[in-house]
Amino acid sequence: MRLAAFAALAACAALAQAQDSAREIQRYRQMIAEGSPAELFEVEGEALWKKPEGPKKVSLERCDLGEGPGVLKGAYAHLPRYFKDADSVMDLETRLLHCMTTLQGRSREEATRRVFGSADRPSEFESLSAYIAAQSRGVRIAPGMSHPKEKASYELGRALYFHRVGAWDFSCASCHGDEGKRIRMQELPVLYKPEAARPVIATWPAYRVSTSQLVTLQWRMNDCYRQMRTPEPTFASETTVALIHFLTATARGETYHGPGNKR
């Protein structure tokens, strides 16, 4: 009985500590929300959006992200979606890559030579994502869900979320499948549930305080696979787009208010 009582007290103390940690992390995020360093990446992204590049020496200002050529308002909040000209479902970075190759005439190899940057040298995709995503602030998240390929992408993403792979037999749900899980002080939300997915997806891409980097959802998917000890997926692959589609669709209805801040 004494052991049971001690175990119960220890469990209560651990729960209280976890709740205190979560509150402190949330308070910290609120403190840095104003004047977020992500704004610096937005400025750089705007310059890249307007800068002539590639063999054709044209900017990305005529890139159609789903709302019409050059229209940025609401575009990020409505991705991933199906694009008829590519006959595929694309997220933001996949679509940007398409515009780089078709509008600017750049090769895929050249455009994807450096897709994930560093603290002192962000990649084009990271800065562009910050700028474009910021134009959707205040817009409700509503990815494409009506076209047959959009429905197939969502279903593929859902299946991949629960599919165990790699030497460790991990899936996305291994970390994000049960309530109350965390890594150190970081809570692990159950992302297949709308109430958990909404506040998370509504703040990506995000400035990562621990590394001083602006990171995107393509980076997040890639890094999760790396941590699961599986081969890292190809940038803008069907796998990563489908997972992003599933998570974004799960978060639909939430008002976008990123780019945000992460630990």
Structure characterization notes:
The chain is globular and about 50 Å long. It has helices spanning 2-33, 38-50, 92-102, 108-111, 124-134, 148-162, 172-176, 194-201, 217-227, 238-250, and strands spanning 81-83, 88-90, 182-183, 186-187, 206-208, 213-215, 260-262. The model has no long low-confidence stretch (mean pLDDT 89). With 263 residues, the chain is mainly alpha-helical. It has 2 domains: 1-34; 35-262, Cytochrome Bc1 Complex, Chain D, domain 2. The strands form 3 sheets. The protein has a 3-stranded mixed sheet. The chain contains 10 helices and 7 strands. Helix 2 crosses helix 5 (124-134), helix 6 crosses helix 10 and helix 9 crosses helix 10 (238-250). The longest helix has 32 residues, at 2-33.
Q: Which helices and strands appear, and what pairs or packs with what?
A:
Elements: H1 2-33, H2 38-50, E1 81-83, E2 88-90, H3 92-102, H4 108-111, H5 124-134, H6 148-162, H7 172-176, E3 182-183, E4 186-187, H8 194-201, E5 206-208, E6 213-215, H9 217-227, H10 238-250, E7 260-262
Parallel strand pairs: 5-7
Antiparallel strand pairs: 1-2, 3-4, 5-6
Helix pairs in contact: 2-5, 6-10, 9-10
